Amino acid sequence: MNDINSFTTDRLEKKRGGMMKFLLIACLSLFVIACSESSVTTTETTDNSDDLVSSTEVSPHAILSSGYLSESVGMSSNFRAKGAHTANEDGFASPLFGLATAPNGNILVADAGAGVATLDGRTNIPLPGVSDMSPIGRGTMWALKGLTGAPGDDTGQALYRVSKGKNKVIADLFSFEATNNPDGGVVDSNPFDVESLGGKAALVVDAGGNDLLHIDNKGNLKVLAVFPDELVSTANIKELVGCPDSGAGLCGLPDMMPAQPVPTSVAIGPDGYYYVGELKGFPAPSNASNIWRIAPDASWAECGSSPDCMKVFDGGFTSIIDLVFDSEGNLHVAELDEQSWFAVEVLGGGVGGTINSCDLDAASCTEVATEIPILTAITFGNDGRLWATQNALIPNLAEVVAID
User: Fold this and answer.
1) Residue 89 — very low, low, confident or very high, per pLDDT cuts 50/70/90?
2) What is the superkingdom listed in this entry's lineage (predicted)?
């Protein structure tokens, strides 16, 4: 492992690596209608960084959408996370949103630009827009098609069952969101992570709908949990745009404001409970992403008030993008970037993401890998090796690496 340093969930400071500068371009506007009613609109700017966020409502959903395209500026294509080994030399279509391990040991890649791929970059299952997959058995898996347009659009968001090369829609997730809207906010579906419960059912976390769903193989959907908005600090975003010296419009934000949870990841713990991590929406706070523990028999649990959905970690992470348990029961937590999704998506910067290994009994974590640029997914191979994406949103640079 590289430079493992202990930390606790109330950490206020993080060791930050050198800045990786790159320009990220979306084929949909990066600044589409916000995923939160609490988003901000600014009207005057005084510097270039504020021009990026002026006269618009800012949402993290572009970075979670397969409509996302990128090109690098000043970034070395030879960058490697410390201790990483490149597995793919041909390049993925990108963006890469999910990783999983097949029963035969193959590492599967959710390449939203093409479909379900393997480490050599070959697309074995064409499914443009795929955001994640979870194997059921040999040659059979659950797969998600996520948001491929602006938040609120119906772009065919769905849970698929893939078997013998055939893709079958099991559940129309946008239709479910439009009809039920569990969180009571703006209708918005962006199914981002799936976890197999075997051949009869799967768990789906919807980053747009802010909920955790149980879906059986007949397409019956059940809401297990709904995640709440929370008051968060605006200090991080103000620091990112250079407040107060920059005079940027965002400097006028209140000290605290509500943010949507934007759940991005679900993993099944050794105790049988379901664990969900949050990205956290605008204003993209640092150290405010929670991890929730949900009872398997939960039904419409209001997280934070229902005993069926309680926090395991009350903040302590920044922009959680994936969760996975290792064979010893430790929860590994992937953070997209230590400066938050806003630094990557809006400002075209960031310092890289972190993978943490967490002992749930001790409620403490250690850093396993740091400074991974645009980290979006992790998985453990059958041999126990940890794999991760990096530069996951950048065509010709997106890759999957093994972390030593």
Assistant:
1) low
2) Bacteria
